[in-house]
Amino acid sequence: MVTEDFTRLTLDTLALCTMDFRFNSYYHDALHPFIAAMVNSLTELGARAVRPLLASIFYREANRKYWEDIGTLRQTAQGILDSRRRHLTGPRPHVEPVVYGENARDFVPDRMLDENIERLTKEYPDCWKPFGSGIGACIGRLFAWQASPARGDKHINIQLPDGITYKVGDYVAVLPFNPKETVTRVMRKFQPSWDSHITIGSNRWTALPTGTPISVYDVLGSYVKLSQSAIRRGILLADASKDEATKQQLHTLAGDLYASEISLKRASILDLLEGFPSVSLPFGTFLSLLPLMRLRQYSISSSPAINPTRATLAYSLLEGPALANPANRHIGVATAYLASLLRGDRLLLSVRPTHTAFRLPDEIESTPIICVAAGSGLAPFRDFSQERAVLRAKGRELAPALLFSGCCGPEVDDLYRDEFDEWHGMGVVDVRRAEEVKGLWECGARVYVCGSRLVKEGVKQVMGKIVLGGGATEDEVSQWYESVRNDRYATNMFD
Ligand SMILES: Cc1cc2nc3c(=O)[nH]c(=O)nc-3n(C[C@H](O)[C@H](O)[C@H](O)COP(=O)(O)OP(=O)(O)OC[C@H]3O[C@@H](n4cnc5c(N)ncnc54)[C@H](O)[C@@H]3O)c2cc1C
């Protein structure tokens, strides 16, 4: 009883001090749904850590409950954030250009170096108090320091090698390295020393370098794709296990369960080896089951009219609990690699021409354009808009350009916001954001939809995701729709 009281006291205090949010745990017998969901999901995560990998197949109800709890956590957090954004008053010094310069909204980790923060707080004593003063600031600061790296959308500047240029709409192909975390998992499994070398025999065809010693770390880092879904032949490594039950389970995974448990969840050979420790596979066999590392493509988000030897990229960092085993992180190979680069680092890339249809029209004065993007899909349209802004500055007439941009909000994933606002003001491009719709909805807007049932269903799904957040499930959207239909949301169907 005493422990429960202290749990209530601690969590109520944290929520109140950091987010000005009241769980009011002493006013009710039952815990606030957020706390219940948090306790349940932590308990489930603890249980998962000791469960064999892929045993999740047998814990469907626990999985369902786990994701329901995660949904509750996200919904509460989103509600608090939305409410804080609505009620923000006065300046927000931690994102103000006057304090941090023109790139105030960019993710620049160097800002957080001690000497920079010290200098800034001397000049602007309150600049680093996103959670206010006193106890709120003390606890909130920790949350804030984690908040900036959590931003998923990023931007990188590349100086191209001499003689390499590009055209509007082009993209680059990047050769990435596997995340250190994934390479470490392999090293842990096979236990070679970090500096060991192998020589790959040439008796069977392989695209890997043969007949010459090569470091294990290099092979794992840059030659092979470690996170590829396991192929059936690989799963039948069951024969390498002495344990009959394991053999049986692996045969089922290569058979009836292949689509749902391997393909859909992108379970890799490494996942399987970790999940079935009784399988002992030679390192050479493991390598032979992996495909070669593949290039990743990124649209150039700058116009050569600004500087033909510099290209910028915008990318969404892919990172989250792995589908095959939420105790592991799924890390996007190329995006994690791009995010790890520091100023002055070199990367291997080539410039590729885009297909002819994805170029700006030649008759820029008379052919209007309509662009639709979500998240980092905005990249080529920044390139287009930069180009159009340069042409406008040179006095060229421009036909209208309309850009529909799907993003969750100005401080979440609204890439290049300031530039697009400026171009919008200059008449270079007319930008429409999902956030506008959300803003109007929150001001009590009524929605009217007229047309076919197909239109009704499509608009319902999109509106639901705008109002509830991109992660809302179909069920959640339906529940929301039922709660507003014939009240604030009217439809008139023609079929
Ligand atoms: C012409 C072109 C232009 C492009 N331009 C851009 C651009 O400008 N910006 C941009 O960001 N991207 C762009 N892309 C996409 C980009 O090439 C990459 O595919 C993307 O960045 C992901 O690469 P990654 O290596 O980080 O992820 P990968 O390591 O390849 O991982 C992606 C794979 O992981 C799977 N996956 C996702 N979540 C999980 C999970 N939780 N568990 C298990 N598996 C999971 C996905 O299904 C997907 O198959 C472009 C693609 C093309 C073809």
Folded structure, characterized:
- The chain is α/β, with parallel strands linked by helices and 495 residues long.
- It has four domains: 2-86, no CATH class; 180-288, NADPH-cytochrome p450 Reductase, Chain A, domain 3 (Up-down Bundle), CATH 1.20.990; 296-438, Rossmann fold, CATH 3.40.50; 446-493, no CATH class.
- Helix content is 43%, strand content 13%.
- It is built from 19 helices and 14 strands.
- Strand 7 and strand 8 (329-331) form a beta hairpin.
- Helix 1 packs across helix 6 (134-147), helix 2 packs across helix 3 and helix 18 (453-468) packs across helix 19.
- The radius of gyration is 26 Å and the shape is globular.
- Mean pLDDT is 82; it is low at 89-95 and 128-151.
- Flavin-adenine dinucleotide binds at residues 171, 227, 266, 296-299, 314-316, 318, 320, 322-323, 330, 332-335, 376, 379.
- It holds the Pfam family FAD_binding_1.
